[in-house]
Amino acid sequence: MSHRTTVTARAAVIGILGVAICASLTGCADFYRQHREFQDGWRTGEIVEIGRANEIQRGGRTDCRKAASAEDLAVLHFAVLVDRSTGQRHAHTVMLDLAASIELGDIVSTNVVRCGTPIRVLLPARASGG
After folding, report:
1. Cβ neighbours of 97 (radius 10 Å)
2. Is 113 in contact with 126 (CB distance < 8 Å)?
3. Rounded CA gap, 98 and 79, in Å?
4. Residue 82: which of 111, 43, 30 has the closest Cα?
5. Residue 50 contacts residue 78 (beta carbons within 8 Å)
6. In the chain, pLDDT over 90 holds for what percent of residues?
7. What's the predicted TM-score (pTM) here?
8. Higher pLDDT, 99 or 3
9. Residues 6+ apart with CB under 8 A from 42
10. Which of 34, 60, 99, 129 could form a disulfide with 93 if both were Cys (CB 3.0 to 4.6 A apart)?
11. How far apart are alpha carbons 3 and 10 in whole angstroms?
12. How far, CA to CA in Å, does 75 sit from each of 11, 19, 51, 65, 125?
């Protein structure tokens, strides 16, 4: 094998290793970000119940009704979000703001420990056939 071929082959191997390491680090960074967001209370799940505070039947792992003021309990609606992020179903009762346009079956993202965090609809029930 000539010197030029050896240098070219070595450069190709180094390039491939560089791409593999970069991809690996990017994947690790994404995993760490998702883990940190989970630890901070961010969940994605399906809306399975909506109503006034006293109408919600389902309990949950977290429940924003416990932190709500008497006025919020009387005026606002709440929703139960079921997530499967840990491989098990966990329910969370979240507070809806007055402008929220949430329907049963919507797939949403919100922070379940920071009550009052706006809920973002990722996939409306109409689009998912729910």
Report:
1. 12
2. no
3. 12
4. 43
5. yes
6. 49
7. 0.70
8. 99
9. 109, 110, 111, 112
10. 60
11. 11
12. 67, 55, 11, 12, 25
Question: Measured between alpha carbons, how far apart are the two ends of the chain, in Å?
Answer: 64
Look up residue 17 and give its two tokens: 């290793």
Task: Supply the DSSP symbol for 83.
Answer: E
Q: Is 41 left (phi over 0), alpha (psi -120 to 50) or beta?
A: left
Alpha carbon of residue 118 to chain centroid: 13
pLDDT in tens, 64-107: 999 999 999 999 999 999 997 767 789 999 999 888 899 999 99
User: What is the three-class DSSP state of 114?
Assistant: coil
Nearest by Cα to 91 from 47, 33, 127: 47
Of 31-40, 58-67, 101-110, least confident by mean pLDDT is 31-40
61 residue type, one letter: R
